[in-house]
Amino acid sequence: MIPLLKRLGLNKYNVDKTSHIEVNTDICLTCRDKPCTLSCPAGTYEALPNGRIEVHYERCLECGGALVICPYNAIKFRFPEGGVSFRYG
Ligand code: SF4
Questions:
Q1: What does the alpha-carbon distance between residue 20 and residue 1 come to, in Å, rounded to a whole number?
Q2: How far is the CA of 58 from the centre of ligand 1 (A)?
Q3: How far is the CA of 68 from the centre of ligand 1 (A)?
Q4: Where are the domains of the chain?
Q5: Does domain 19-79 have CATH number 3.30.70.20?
Q6: How far apart are CA 45 and CA 26, in angstroms?
Q7: Does any ligand 1 atom lie closer than 6 A to the CB of residue 36?
Q8: Ligand 1 test: best mutation among 44, 48, 53, 68, most atoms within 8 Å of CB?
Q9: Following CA atoms 22, 47, 13, 19 in sequence, which dihedral angle do they give, to the nearest 10 degrees?
Q10: pLDDT tens by residue, 27-70
Q11: InterPro entries under this entry (predicted)?
Q12: Cα separations (Å) of 74 from 17, 31, 82?
């Protein structure tokens, strides 16, 4: 069996020019544990020293995990025009 990171490395990405993820980072200021940064397998959400979140949308695997785990409903998501093509089932 191929390890997860190698499988993810087989994916093909067609990155959009604009982000398909919007985060209300004012809400993030009050979110102490920032679970989106821990749950995303692709490192899409980065906690900044000022308490806000930076979104690296080009890394997104479109799994929806951050939408589920965000306790404050601070994330708006739409599927990107391009997005990821999974090459390993
Ligand atoms: S879990 Fe939600 S509220 Fe908390 S830092 Fe992430 S996006 Fe912001």
A1: 32
A2: 18
A3: 11
A4: 19-79
A5: yes
A6: 15
A7: yes
A8: 53
A9: 20
A10: 999 999 999 999 998 899 999 999 999 999 999 999 999 999 99
A11: 4Fe4S_Fe-S-bd, Fd_FixX
A12: 22, 10, 24
Could you tell me how many residues make up the chain? Answer: 89
In the chain, the percentage of residues whose pLDDT exceeds 70 is 99
**What's the pLDDT score for residue 89?**
59
The candidate with the shortest Cα–Cα distance to 46, out of 58, 55, 59, 57, is: 55
Q: Whose CA is nearest to atom 3 of ligand 1?
A: 28
pTM of the prediction? Answer: 0.87
Nearest to 14 by CA among 64, 62, 58, 44: 58
- Give residue 18's identity as a one-letter amino acid code: T
User: CA of 1: how far to CAs of 7, 11, 31, 70, 85, in Å?
Assistant: 10, 16, 38, 32, 20
